[in-house]
Design goal:
- The chain contains twelve helices and ten strands.
- About 7% of the residues have low confidence.
Length: 368
Amino acid sequence: MKKTIRLLAVLVALASLLSISVLLVSCSGKGKTVLEYDGHKVSEGMYSYWMHNLKDYYISYYADVEDTAEYWNSENELGVTNKEYIESQIRTRINYYLVGAALFDSLGLKLDKSAKETVETVIKDQIAHYGSRSKYIKVLKESYGMTIGEMKEALTFEEKYFAVYSHLYDDINGIETASEKELDEYYENYYARVKYVMFLKNIKYLYNDDGTRKTDSAGYFLTEELSGEEKEQVAAEANEVYKKALDGESMNDLMKEYMTKYGFVLENTPNGFFVTADDYSSHSPTVTVAALEMEIDEVRLCESEDCYFIVKKLDLPKKGYVSTTDSAQFKNFITYVNSKKFAEKFTPLIEKIKEDKDIIAKYAFEKL
C-alpha cells in the first residue's frame, strides 16, 4: 500500500540541510565529479542515478504524489512547490550518502558481511533481470550515464551511510543515542496531546444488519458518496458538537458518541492522542497543525478536504512517552529524537560540500 506524504509547516527538519557551499570540482578518473566532501566524491553517473531513482521512489511509494506538471508546480503547506520540496529532499539524501561515507571512514568503521552481500546481490539481480552483464551495462549507460563500478560505489555509499547512522544513533546501541534529558526536552517541545471528534464530509460507511461495517472481497470497508443534503447534515452536526465542546461537555462522551461509528477503538486511547509533526500517518495534518498551535484547553473546529475535526488541546503529562497505556503512540519516539540529533550533526558538515553547479543544472527536477 502506498503511503501518503504529509507536508506540515512544522516539519522543517530537513529544509535547513540544503545550504551547500558552491564550488566547482575538477573531473575524476571515473568522469566528472558533481559533489565532493573530505576527499570523497560523487560522480555524475552516481548523481544521475540517485536523482532519477529517488524521484521514482517518491512517485511510486507515496499515494498523493502525481507525476504531472500541475502537481509539481502546486504549492504545499510549507509554502513551496511540491517540485521544490521533493527535489530538496532528494538532494539532502544524496548529501547524506556523501557525508556518511566520509564519516564511515573517519570513524574507522567496516562494512559487515550482510552489507557487502546486499551490494553484490543488487547488482547480480539486476544483471539477471536484464539477461546479461552486457545488457545491464548498456542500460546503466543509457539511463544514468554510469558504469557498473559507479553503481557499486553508489550502493556502497548508501550502506556506509546506514552503518554510520546505526553506529551513532541506533535506539539501543548507538554511541550518541538520545539521553533521558534529550528525550524529555523533545517530548515537551515537539508533542501535543488532544482529544478530537471527527466527521467524514463526503462519504459514509455501509453497514450490515448486525451493525458491522460492510467490506469488499479484499477486506476494505465499503462506502458511498453523501448526497448534498447529507453533507449539510454532517456540517450541522459538526457545528453542534463544536458548541457542546465549547460549553464544556466531556470530550470523552462526545468521542464515544460520535467517533465509534468511524471505527475508532477509544479504549486504547483513554488519555487522548499524542501528536507530533514527525508522525504524518497517525492523524490528519489538519489535527497536527492545530494541536501544535493551540493553547491548553482551547477548542477548535478544523476542516480538511475530507473531514471536520472538533479538537481540544490538553496538557502533556510528565514523561508521557514512558506510559504503558500510551506506549503504542510512542513506538518511534526515540527514533524521532535521534533523527533530530542526526540532522544537527550533519548540517554543518553538509555546508562544506563542494559542488559543480553546471552539472547539477543538467539534472534539475523538471528535466528528469
